[in-house]
Design a protein that fits this description.
Length: 268
Amino acid sequence: MQTRQAAAREDATHEFKRFILERSRAFESEPRADLYRVNLLSQMLDRYDALREVGTSEALCRQRVRREFEDIPTRMADAGFERAQTAERGRSARFPALSEAETERYIDEEEARAKRIGTGAGLCAACCAPLMAAMGFSMYISDDMCAGLGLAGMFAMIGLGVYMFATAPKPKLREQLKRERVPLTDRARRAVEDRRERERKRTAGGIALLVSSIVPFFLCMALGEGIGGENFFIGVGLAGFFGMIGAGVRELVYASGVKNAIKRLLRR
């Protein structure tokens, strides 16, 4: 229990350091300002410890402390610290290593984005499935009705896929990680390595779905030959074929997005 609490406090310390540097980067890096930043960190940790002592949850403690210290720029301006003359000089210090909690949060945000984009790509790749399925039912209902339903389903899937693309959220740290390398703590690096192994398995699953996507078509052809209704089973088989392609594309795009995020974190 004590080990877990110590690890949580270490993660909070790294997070608060980053928070202070980001909020104060508009000010010059000089000894008096750096000492003020150290004092701010001490105040934030004292407040964090006080909230933990009364039973406040870890996540809520960090959130409340960050909210209480949102006015760091105002505090530094009131204390008479000079603002940086250029954006380059305003980089008050090298960013400290990302903690395990910050790293996990960033990858979770990237995973949510990749999942949404992957789902959109999968919907677009599988958009012919409703049309193929409707063709299979043409032996039971009119061709015009089947064509209308199939086309409606196809364009609905395309529209939903495009919507998923357009509304995928962008993580807060993404632009910063593109501009500069941010170091990781040892615990954070191990956690990232574990996530990378998980995405390798997801990639393998996506490839397996694409390779085996023809199976539903052959299976339905065999059923059509055996029990009749060949056109129906061909339509269903083709729908399954496109559906598996869409599922495979989704997994590959999903895994690719998360792996790219991991690559940005682990780059030297």
